[in-house]
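Lab notebook, bench 4. Still working through the backlog of constructs that have no structural model yet. Next entry is a single chain of 632 residues. Request: give me the structure tokens for it.
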Amino acid sequence: MINYFNKIDKDQKMGEILGIVFLCAVIPFLYTNYTIDPVLHPRFVAWTIFLIGSISIYFKFNRSDSLNDTLDIQKYHLLLVGFVIISLLSIFKAVNVSEAAFDFLKNFCFLISFIIFFNLFRNHRRAFDNISVGMTLAGLITGVITIVAIINSLGESYIITSDVLDALQKQTGGIVGFMANKNQLSIALFLFLPFCIHLVFKQSILSKVIGIVTITSLVVSLIILHSRSVIMGISVSIFCISVLYVIYLYKSKKYSFNVSLILPFILIIGIVIIVEWFTPYNFITTFMDKFRTSFDIHDSTAEIRLKIWKESIELFAQHIFLGVGGGNWKIMLPSVGIESIPADYFNSIFIQRPHNDPIWILCENGLFGFLTFYTFYGYIIYNLINSYFHSMNTNTRFDIILMLFVLIGYLVLSLFTFPKERIFHQVLLSFFLAYSSYLTIGQGKFNQTLKVPSETFVISIIIFTLVVSSVFGAYRVRGEYFTKMALYHRGNQNWNQVITEINKAYTPFYTLDQTAIPLKFYSGVASYSLGNYSIAIDDLKIAKEKSPYNVHVLNNLGSSYFNSGQYIQAIESYKELLTYYPWFSEAIANLTVAYIKSGQIEEAVKLLDNESFNIERKNEIISYLKSINIEI
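Model written out:
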């Protein structure tokens, strides 16, 4: 019996060590230059490997050869299970199955992460303390990397000016490379804060010093980067917690104020003063102006976002219950008509996400997916607030405040950006939700403990799905690598090599690149450039199957038909394109020429009155028509 419990202790220790290594050393810093997105798919693969290892540890050290004795869930956790099932069902609604399948696998990994972390806390109360130390060090490294990158971008003067700040806020390169872009870096900095604050208030003197230094580096970086979504999230979160604290004091009839709570505010004010000291202009005034614009709905960026959200709601209205399928928002949005959105967002720029996670889930997983996930999320916040007013020790109450701070802040910032896409953010969200769920065990009507089914079949399904996830992610990493090579050769107009690389990249697991362009589009354009129009048509047809509303796929398919002498098919392709993109001047001109070639002169003349017609092309066509004695 003693040996058995030693095994259980060993199991718990190994699980905790694996979690610390993954959270603190792997997931924040895993990065490669060999893929288009340097972090998304590599971190997903690492995530799946971590989960396979964690599940295997639980399974190996369980004497009954099941997870029945080691993994528990609460009754309301079934909401998260329901969300994952709905994301699986939404695959059948998807135009692009590979993107929907990848989204489902991410959601499945999120569920398993949540269950593993929840049971880690149940089995080892101090796990959060130990992980906080490692995550604080990881946060310190991240903050230092960010500040060094900022200093390097200042030039020889090493002075922060308004121009430098503006440049930093627009930059999406080196400073944020290991977090993909500035907004996601800022969110990561925010997600490190609970660990640092926990360390300052609960650990040794040395830990407190490390925590304060880390908080300083993170806050300095957040202030300079000034991602509006994060600033709004932190502001709303602090306001909500302040209101909750006042209500708590009133209900408990405690009218004395805890002076230690002022420490973070003093620290932030000190940081701002230091930044002001090294700034040759009024930094505080500039920062406050930028802070004010964070809540300005009339800002140009905000206006465009509102238009995108409006079109997204129309998309949802056409696919209410299960949505369009995970990862398919970027494919399906043009199908509802996007005249209100600036043309550049579908011409030279590609909208890949709505910058609003709730709307994103609503569109891709439907009303059922939205309700299951956010009911689960909201119920945890409700339990935290409810628990806060109960009698408990100070440490637990402080942890509840930390969890409310991060969960409310995350929820608010997710209304203006896309943390759901990023693996690091999703791992930490599952971690915080699991710890919050642990802190509120016994609260509410739906907190009954349920055992994970002990049948070998269920365990096999979990492990099999995780293995599939790992293989799926590996193929996507491979696909990204060859796609990046293809884009390099495309820039050099080495068309045969483009075709070779795309053929290597294209698999059932990876059919679209990170800008929502189908891979077969690139090989189709390469074949078109080589004069192989029939091959180009075949590739572009496949590209259209994977992304039926893509402006460039439809335009190039029409051009391939045109150059192969199939004018009627070219006309149909151009007309289909203009149904979704009526402002696309190149397609208007191409359609006009196709009408002329097919002998439909009257239709061609009608198009000349289109306001979106490019003037130079229009004059060329008019000159040609006059040369063949057609009066305009």
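Notes after review: The longest helix spans residues 456-491. The CA atoms of residues 104 and 147 lie 36 Å apart. Flag for follow-up if needed.
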